[in-house]
Design a protein that fits this description.
Helices cover 35% and strands 29% of the residues. It has ten helices and twelve strands. The strands form two sheets. Strands 7-6-3-4-5-10-1-2-9-8 form a ten-stranded mixed sheet, with helices on both faces. The mean pLDDT is 93.
Length: 299
């Protein structure tokens, strides 16, 4: 089971997360048949969504992260929330996501997957926090590099005024994901400069987290990397890839298209319609009679 470790450093002067998202990202690739570069980009985005979702408490709240760059992967959309799985112990985190053009192949750059080239270096990163209040919170920043970690760190500073160190790593091939994870460190107001200096010195180590997770557990890495900085473990939460799609949800999506669109579907589609979930690739069949029934509900 994947895990999200919550911790603080230096008597709460720094709060942080260490995430092992390997199985989550592996399942996403298996469901969608993504290429290596698409799986790696989605893996980073899913792990970033876990970071953004880490403060959620209500089961019906959610965070949606969208990367809309000018690269060949096109749009990446991820959603995070509290896990609805009855087997989940406590308030685990559930995420799901997709890459619009998930079969893209790109040449390696210096022996590494070209995430920045796939996402693009121009475009926007947007975050929608739906806390089931009157209006959701929406924040947007321009993409800086397309590498996602740097873009998320920029978002935290610009939209949430929180200086953050973000590291995201995914090792992926066209057939599997051996490792994926991330580190988030956020300095609280009044944090001593000496602590910040220490974290910056260690940032190259955090940047290789995917490789490190192939050899050590997240808890061991936490001790090795940060045990001398007043480390205090707060909680460990389960993480899983979870898609809540269902036929009733798809029916509501069809109804939301409106009566005119449903009429066109009934006229144009000889044998009904098929809807495919972007997040899990599950297919839902609707006969002409089903569409007529939904049309009556629009009236």
């Amino acid at each position: 089971m994947d895990t999200v470790l919550h911790f603080t450093l230096a008597d709460g002067a720094v709060r942080g997360l260490l995430i092992d998202s390997t199985q989550t990202v592996r399942k996403a690739q298996a469901l969608q048949g993504s290429s290596a570069v698409a799986a790696a980009a989605l893996g980073r985005a899913l792990t970033a969504t876990v970071m953004l979702s880490s403060t959620l408490k209500e089961k019906d709240s959610s965070v949606t992260l969208t990367l809309d760059g000018d690269g060949p992967l096109k749009k990446i959309v991820c959603v995070g929330g509290i896990s609805a799985d009855p087997d989940s112990k406590g308030d685990g985190i559930a995420v799901r996501g997709y890459v619009q053009n998930h079969t893209v192949q790109l040449p390696l750059v210096n022996g590494r997957l070209d995430i920045g080239g796939g996402v693009g270096r121009h475009g926007r990163l947007s975050v929608v926090r739906d806390l089931r209040m009157k209006n959701p919170y929406i924040g947007q920043v321009a993409l800086r590099t397309g590498e996602i970690a740097e873009d998320l760190a920029y978002y935290y500073v610009q939209s949430e005024q929180t200086p953050s160190l973000v590291s995201l790593g995914v090792i992926a091939s066209d057939v599997t994901v051996p490792a994926a994870g991330g580190v988030l460190l956020q300095a609280m107001p009044g944090c001593d400069d000496a602590i910040i200096d220490q974290l910056e010195l260690r940032s190259p180590i955090f940047g290789d987290i995917a490789n490190e997770l192939q050899h050590e557990t997240p808890d061991t890495l936490l001790s090795l990397w940060l045990g001398d900085l007043g480390l205090a473990r707060l909680e460990s939460r389960e993480l899983r890839y979870e898609c809540p799609c269902s036929k009733p949800r798809m029916e509501r999506a069809l109804i939301s298209l409106g009566a005119e669109e449903l009429k066109h579907m009934i006229t144009d589609e000889v044998e009904g319609a098929e809807l495919v979930c972007h997040f899990c690739n599950r297919k839902y069949q609707f006969t002409t009679q089903d569409l007529l029934r939904l049309l009556n509900r629009c009236r």
